[in-house]
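Input.
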Amino acid sequence: MDFSEAANRISRKFAKGGQTPDVKKIEGKLRRLVDEFGVQPSEAERSVTNELAKEFNLPAPGSGGSAGGGGKGGGTEEKKIADGVPGEWVTIEGKIVALSNPPSPSIAQSGVIADDSGAMRFVVWAKSNAPAMAEGSWYRIESAVVDEFKGVANLKIHSGTTIKEISEDRSLIPSPVPIKDLHPGIDSVRAKFIQEWDASHERMLQSGLLGDETGTIKFVIWKEPGKEKLVPGAVYNLFYAQVDEFNGRLSLNLNTATILQEEGEIEVSGGEVAVTGAIVHIAPGSGIIKRCPVEGCNRALSRQNYCPVHEIQPKFIYDLRIKGWLDDGEKTHNILIQRDVVESLTGISLAQAQEIAENNPLGMDEVFLQMRDTVLGRYITCHGREIDNRLLVNKCDKVVFNSGDHTALLNRAGGAPS
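Output.
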């Protein structure tokens, strides 16, 4: 886009009516919209034209109406939040239901705004010098930009946006969405906390699996002041959670969510699989392990009792697990088996494993070797949920060797021997 030419073109439109707009300011606004906000050049030119028309109390010259199809808000169309489309300039009225820590100094505020149609993330640019908005309050936001980030619509508040607080406290009751119907963006769910996972990052407060009657989904809570962990087995209403997508899989970020525990129950379904095959590999980190005893951590420690977050932990907690591969003859499944199932599968209890680790010359390695010798090559059926290409096993059944099945596998691999 030739910003200078576009600025002169806009200036000439108003010069016909006796106005003398500042061409340099026009050019600066166009550059900001296109370069900083990613607005299409034609839409940027139309927006600046309408802004000047409002400033001079004139109809937008040559527009045949207001940008975005006419309506309120200085040339932008008033819309419900759910109807905002990337590339549009809109005016909305909504409630600030969550504020989050701005990820960059260039951002003054960020969070989630909602109305009775839905919710959307918003960003207030520091350069806009916009008034700070308060969580729980309603606002009318005029001439904001809806754009797109990672396939999700979000609202950008810039220097041309007007923010007015609405004194009326309107009723806003979000409706939960079934897990199977979630899509990237902001949504609300009613779900049961069915499985807690090890935190995989030092900034992670909690991670695990949520489920409802339609399916399951991974969730994460990042460490922030005031954030608390969920209680395994409890049922929650999670309003305005951020639904993210990575490699085709959805997950919930609960840092923006309003979390309310309830007394009800949910019969979780969906996501359960059963895989029968042979254990062909036991990975390092299996057997007896040590975990960090600091409340809320539970990370696996190194052999030197070192936690990546809480450093040396002499008062560690012992645990059992098996990480490995289960081959069903057609596909190899990455499996993770937790303590209670490990005890049942190997016949070695946590107390027995601890006695071996503390008194055998090989220590923890002896537990690993005994468990490996017990299960490696064994045919079993693993029941659980497959999340992020890993089968989280909650039950194992031993399978009696069937020579007919073995022959069939050989035939698939290379044909029957002559």
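Helices lie at 3-15, 23-36, 41-55, 339-346, 350-359, 364-375, 403-414.
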